[in-house]
Amino acid sequence: MSEPDKPREPDPAVPPLDTIPDSQRVPPPRRPAPPRPQPINAAADIPPGAIAAFGVVGLVALVLILKWGIPKGIDWYHHQDWAWFTQWTATVADPVHAYLSAHTVGLPLTATSAFVIWQGVGLVSLVLSWITGAVGARLTWTAHGACSVFMVWDAAPAAGRPVAAALAVLAWTIGSLFALRGLSLRPLIHLHNHNHNHPAR
Questions:
Q1: What is each CA distance from 156 to 85, 101, 115, 145, 160, in whole angstroms?
Q2: Cα 48 vs. chain centroid, distance in angstroms?
Q3: What is the pLDDT of residue 60?
Q4: Which distant-in-sequence residues (6+ apart) come within 8 Å of 163 by Cβ?
Q5: Cα–Cα–Cα angle for 95, 99, 101, rounded to 5 degrees
Q6: What pLDDT is attached to residue 41?
Q7: Which stretches of the chain score pLDDT less than 70?
Q8: 156 vs 167: CA distance, rounded Å
Q9: What is the pLDDT of residue 122?
Q10: Res 51: pLDDT
Q11: How far apart are CA 162 and CA 185, in angstroms?
């Protein structure tokens, strides 16, 4: 027990934490990264005899396809009635051509030229959307489909207007299987780690 008459010594002054520069703060020790697994070499685990057997089977299958498969396919193609496809194409293309003919009167652009432009824009946007997946190409393909359905609905005969518009929508959605492949409506979330360790000086 301290003597009551002895004065109490003041506590030592503790500097605030904000006076310590960031460069002098000691970072926590970094954990060593786990060793990376060795890549799996599946070819090294397959016996050479099995590889040779697979090669022989593949060669025989290719010969059979070239000798019997392709001629059978060509023969089947020639014996099929493709009138449904030409009728479907005419159901969509004829109203578009009629719409362009009725709405290009007085313009320097003829209806035939407008119809060729309509076909070219649709084909080019479909190919570019399928190969590159560019946003501009996909927007062009979407606008082309919407304009096509509108023209078919406006110019088709009144009795067959719903069927013609439905066939136009189906044709556009079939093309969208290729043009809009890989497109997802789910949001993409990126996580960034901003923790930077400063080495002590």
A1: 18, 13, 16, 16, 7
A2: 39
A3: 85
A4: 91
A5: 115
A6: 64
A7: 1-7, 10-28, 39-45, 185-201
A8: 12
A9: 94
A10: 79
A11: 29
User: Which residue is associated with the tokens 């078919």?
Assistant: 152
- Residue 50 to residue 67: CA distance in whole angstroms: 26
Q: Are 115 and 97 in contact (CB under 8 A)?
A: yes
CB contact at 8 A, 128 and 144: no
Tokens 């685990």 -> residue: 45
pLDDT on residue 14: 61
Q: Which has the closest alpha carbon to 152: 90, 100, 101, 92?
A: 92
Query: What is the structure's pLDDT at 10?
Result: 67
Q: Record the tokens describing residue 89, joined without a space.
A: 């194409």
What are the backbone angles phi and psi of residue 199, rounded to the nearest 5°?
A: -65, 145
* pLDDT at residue number 15: 58
